[in-house]
Design brief:
The chain is α+β, with helices and mostly antiparallel strands and 94 residues long. The protein has helices at residues 5-13, 16-32; strands spanning 45-51, 63-73, 76-84. The radius of gyration is 16 Å and the shape is globular. InterPro entries: DUF6788.
C-alpha cells in the first residue's frame, strides 16, 4: 500500500514537536497490533481518558475523551497529549 503524496509532503514539512507526536502515535498503534520495538526501550502506552477542567461552575465535566501517550524516560514518567480521541485515526483495536 502506498502512502498518499500529500501525507508524505505534510510529514516533510513538520517541525520536531509534530514529528515526535506522530512517532509516538504511530509506535503506539503498531504496538496495539502486536509489534514490538525492543531497540527503542520500553513501549509507549496510549490511553484514552476524560479530564476535569477544575472549574466549579462547569456543568459539562469531565471533558474528552482525550488521548495521551505515557512512557518512561531517564527514570521519569512522561506524558504527551496526542489529541481528541474523535480526531485520531481508528484502528481495528480501538
Amino acid at each position: 500500500m502506498s502512502i498518499d503524496r500529500d501525507v508524505i509532503e505534510a510529514v516533510r514539512e513538520m517541525e520536531e514537536p509534530e514529528l515526535r507526536r506522530l512517532f509516538m502515535l504511530t509506535r503506539a498503534r503498531l504496538e496495539q497490533r502486536g509489534h514490538e520495538f525492543p531497540e527503542l526501550g520500553p513501549g509507549v502506552k496510549v490511553r484514552k481518558q476524560m479530564v476535569r477542567c477544575g472549574k466549579e461552575s462547569c456543568s459539562s465535566c469531565p471533558h474528552g475523551p482525550y488521548v495521551y501517550a505515557y512512557w518512561t524516560e531517564d527514570g521519569r514518567q512522561r506524558t504527551k497529549y496526542l489529541g481528541r480521541y474523535d480526531d485520531l485515526p481508528e484502528t481495528e483495536n480501538d
